[in-house]
Input
Amino acid sequence: MMASASLSLTSCNLRTSSATFSSPLARRTQRISAIMALNSSTPLTSISSNGRRKLPILLFDVMDTLVRDPFYEDIPAFFRMPMKELLECKHPTAWIEFEEGLIDEPTLARKFFKDQRSFDLEGLKSCMKRGYSYINGVEELLCSLKKNGYEMHAFTNYPIWYTMIEEKLKLSNYLSWTFCSCKFGKRKPDTDFYLEVLKHLDVEPGNCIFVDDRMKNVEAAIEAGFRGFQFKGVDLLRNDLSTLGVDISSNSHNENQDLASL
Output
């Protein structure tokens, strides 16, 4: 019954007028909508053919998906300037290059501002580290998923400073920091980064669920064949994962004990 409903829903989503198909953007949007409808209605939890690997594999963006990103509030306050002024003053590509591992910390410090003004780099790092915290409810969800045997990886655009997140929050208690942009020299939503993930994991893309707060990254994942959800809060994520058959159940008492022991 569920498969029949999924096919019916997908067929409905794919019916468009000739005017719709005249626009490449409209065609891409329609295709993504159809795939997302299918994604949200077809459970896929299973054991792989070798009988040892539990599927699906879960891939999580980190900043503002699992962990609060201090950039939008804490960093403007650190530099004592409003966000608009900070965006106007900072170098347009320095942070991206740092995320891709193309430049090191001293180079970032020199290039961070367009006018190459000096600033307290260690102070900035301390500010960011203080601002890292789990998004409400996320750690409990990760604990449940780990307890239920799911393979989980970070799939994030972030520089070597991901180690500061690890030092503070011990995210590796739940997942592996496998796919960081600074390690691969690639960033989402570049298609090559998604293909690199599939090559490394050695699985079909349909056996991967990707979660990110930025829709453009989710759309790129769906285009590559992944199942994808935009993160809009942990309650919605729990519902989305459950829809695909992911076991998010937990024993509240045991889970609290597990968290306390970490």
Remarks:
- The radius of gyration is 20 Å.
- Confidence is low (pLDDT under 50) at residues 1-22.
